[in-house]
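Can't paste images in this forum, so I'm doing it all in text. The chain is below; anyone willing to post the predicted structure tokens underneath?
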Amino acid sequence: MAAQTKSDKTSTNPEVEALRNKIIDIDALSQSGFSQIESIAHLALLSLQTPDGYRHIRDIAFALEAIRHKAQDIQSCINSTAEDVDCNYIDESKHLRMNAHREFIREA
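Text version of the structure:
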């Protein structure tokens, strides 16, 4: 997915080049996905500026669902891309909460 960038610098280090390509991939994913989210939210907000927009509240609900799904998809794609080069973020607090929850259920 690595596209052209402002500077087509080539690296002699393959690991640096792999990281660079993954960063370009993540940038492309985020720009595309977040632009879509922004557009959907903008249209939903515009529709609420007229009385007729409130007659189609179901459309607003579908737009909000689309925003949620797109955000989840982008998060997953970016995380997967970062994992490819062992650079993914791990939320230690979330991990501890999940372990505590499992232990609670086991004891219940």
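The chain is about 70% helix and 0% strand. The two ends are 48 Å apart (CA to CA).
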